[in-house]
Design a protein that fits this description.
Layout lengths: L9 E7 L11 H18 L3 E5 L10 H17 L4 E5 L6 H10 L3 E4 L5 E4 L2 E4 L2 H10 L6 E5 L6 E2 L5 H10 L4 E4 L4 H14 L5 E3 L8 H7 L2 E4 L18 H14 L1
Parallel strand pairs: 1-2, 1-11, 2-3, 3-4, 4-7, 7-9, 9-10, 10-11
Antiparallel strand pairs: 5-6, 5-8
Helix pairs in contact: 1-2, 2-3, 5-6, 7-8
Length: 261
């Protein structure tokens, strides 16, 4: 098993980059400061894994600019905080670019949405990424890059009428090293994880949304890990401020996660 997936407590902080279209255009130097400032907060709180998340929407595959920038920022984060397990996710629906970025940056996992079947979201229809992702990882080769596969992520609507637990088995069968399950709310997420386990899924499962300092212990009793971000964000962060996440909230969540583990 990838060492990242063996971490306990397995808490993944999603470090979202600013949307390059919705807000002002940021220079690479500003983005470097932003990434390091927030990654330092996570590292000091003892968060074991950080997922660097691109917000660049694309009609098709990720652009060369996005790939280059994410690889550069990921490499910087990896160099400055070598103890953190680094992950990569791109907004573009692309199987190969995230794995290539992770390989170049020295990251140990990627998160891929719509890994199996097909779904429709605000940006249109999306087809399964599993086959292309596995081929890319083998061709590079990048055996150290684990694939976290979303199963019917709540930002899209599946185009196949099958239970999420069956789709979870598909994802495991097509090579996902771990799954991310996210229901309509926290309770639904727990129910989906239990159903997947009941159906025979064996790979690690992470709860992908709605995790807070008050429910992280409950989440870790059911899931092997959690992905968290929104509940830890500063309410008073200005648009030009570099520090976006709250230090005290992050420390409290990690204290409760460690106690649960």
């Amino acid at each position: 098993m990838n060492a990242f997936l063996a971490a306990r407590p397995l808490v993944v902080a999603a470090l979202h980059l600013p949307d390059p279209v919705a807000g002002p255009k940021r220079s690479p130097a500003w983005l470097e400061d932003y990434v390091l400032t927030n990654a330092r907060l996570f590292a000091e709180a003892g968060v074991p894994a950080v997922k660097l998340q691109d917000q660049t929407r694309a009609a098709g595959r990720a652009s060369a600019e996005t790939v280059a920038l994410m690889a550069s920022l990921g490499r910087l984060l990896r160099r400055e905080f070598p103890a953190i397990h680094l992950g990569i996710i791109l907004q573009a629906h692309d199987a190969e670019a995230p794995i290539a970025v992770a390989h170049a940056a020295g990251a140990c996992f990627v998160r891929l949405k719509v890994f199996v079947a097909a779904a429709v979201g605000a940006e249109g229809t999306k087809q399964a990424l599993a086959v292309s992702a596995r081929a890319c990882r083998a061709a590079l080769p990048a055996p150290g890059v684990a694939i976290l596969a979303d199963v019917f992520d709540r930002t899209t609507i599946p185009l196949v009428a099958i239970p999420p637990e069956r789709a979870a088995l598909w994802a495991e069968g097509l090579g996902a090293d771990g799954l991310v399950l996210t229901g309509a709310d926290f309770g639904d997420s727990l129910a989906r994880i239990r159903a997947a386990r009941g159906a025979g899924v064996r790979v690690p499962i992470l709860l992908g949304g709605g995790v807070t300092e008050t429910n992280v212990a409950e989440a870790l009793c059911v899931a092997q890990g959690v992905i968290v971000s929104s509940s830890l964000m500063r309410k008073d962060a200005g648009p030009d401020g570099l520090l976006r996440w709250d230090r005290d909230a992050t420390n409290r969540l990690m204290d409760r996660a460690r106690a649960a583990a």
